Amino acid sequence: MVRISFRFWSWVILLCGFSICMELNCTIRDIQESLPCQLYFFSKASDCEEETLSIRMPVLFENITSLDWPGPPGGLNVQTLEKKYTEEGTNNKLYPGIKLSLKPPQDASAKYLKGFIVVIANRNNKGCLVFDISNVTWTVDLLDVQFEHELFPVRGNMQYDVTASSLPLPPMRFKRNDLRRSIISSRWGWDVNQQFPADWTTSLAFRVFLEDDMSWTISVSFTRPPAVFNFSTFIISLIPTDFLNIQSIRTVEFQYNFTEVKRGWYKIGVNPHDEHFSFPGLCLCYRRDRVCDTCIRTETQYFKVG
């Protein structure tokens, strides 16, 4: 697979309120030819409004009056990541980030593709990435190109909602088939050698997609814990706002699909299962001196289904 990779650290993304714009050239990894591509990063919500972007980038955000616009991206993958951040020295702490990858539309509409906009929002702020590939002549061979970008670091233990759209956008009277994903970032600046199992929280991702006219599937995945904590079984819960009919499953896997979900508002929770939680010396979630404690449940914000 041909991959186009953008690897720079967006330190300010969604961490601060001031505006910043970065511009990078895009290069293709593993092949000799180059692809005319530029990546723009805007860290302030007002800079990501369509009206503002249409002035800055009229070719990408042109006002379409015909039926000649691209379909949605051929795929959007959003993953959490944890890695060390070193500046003026070295430490062993891990910090959260987000890895994004997306593809061109996988049909004939790709010939109209001029770029992508990816909006990343948390409860405090919103930023966006704009991919300018307006000078690319799309062929069948290029449909497997994969665009990647890492946002690192981002705030810890926070939900990020990611929306990806192909450019130019269709006229407002037509429905947009944006791709949407959501994740919870991991803890900020933690060292597994200095943490206790009872302090562990995971990073998780989820997406909602339609099964039929009356029900949806919610796909949940989360990051495995450090092996030293000895967690082997987990409880994944789908919790409605009224706390009635909570769905909880016990699993050894790091992914689960809730099916036949009805319209409503829900949140997702993930926590280790500790069947010996009240037995000193046996419990899995403990603190200093092996004092047993309740395992922490990582939860999303409430989100709407339907």
From TrEMBL:
<keyword id="KW-0472">Membrane</keyword>
<dbReference type="InterPro" id="IPR057066">
    <property type="entry name" value="Ig_ILCR1"/>
</dbReference>
<dbReference type="InterPro" id="IPR038683">
    <property type="entry name" value="IL17RA/B_FnIII-like_1_sf"/>
</dbReference>
<keyword id="KW-0732">Signal</keyword>
<dbReference type="GO" id="GO:0005886">
    <property type="term" value="C:plasma membrane"/>
</dbReference>
<protein>
    <recommendedName>
        <fullName>ILCR1 Ig-like domain-containing protein</fullName>
    </recommendedName>
</protein>
<feature type="domain" description="ILCR1 Ig-like">
    <location>
        <begin position="199"/>
        <end position="302"/>
    </location>
</feature>
<feature type="signal peptide">
    <location>
        <begin position="1"/>
        <end position="21"/>
    </location>
</feature>
<keyword id="KW-1003">Cell membrane</keyword>
<dbReference type="Pfam" id="PF25519">
    <property type="entry name" value="ILCR1_N"/>
</dbReference>
<dbReference type="Pfam" id="PF23608">
    <property type="entry name" value="Ig_ILCR1"/>
</dbReference>
